[in-house]
Amino acid sequence: MPQTLEELERELAQLQAQLPRHSIKPATLARMDELEEAIEKLKKAMEQKDLTS
Fold it and tell me: Which of these, 47, 52, 30, lies nearest to 12 by C-alpha position?
C-alpha cells in the first residue's frame, strides 16, 4: 500500500522515539531501514517530478 512522505516520516519518528537504549530488536531495525529507504525513494521521485514539470 503506497504511503505518503508524511506518513512514512511519522512512522519512522515514532519508531525512533520508542527505541530502548539497549537491545533493539532486529525487526525494529529492519523496519526503520525499510522506512528510510522508502522515504528516500519517494523524495527522489518527487524531485524528478519537479524537474520534469
Answer: 30
Tell me the C-alpha to C-alpha distance, in Å, between residue 28 and each of 11, 22, 37, 51.
12, 13, 14, 35
- Rounded Cα distance between 23 and 46, Å, is 36
- pTM reported for the whole predicted model: 0.77
Closest CA to 29 of 45, 12, 46: 12
Q: Where are the domains of the chain?
A: 5-17+27-52
Distance of CA 35 to the CA centre of its chain: 3
Q: What is the pLDDT of residue 44?
A: 94
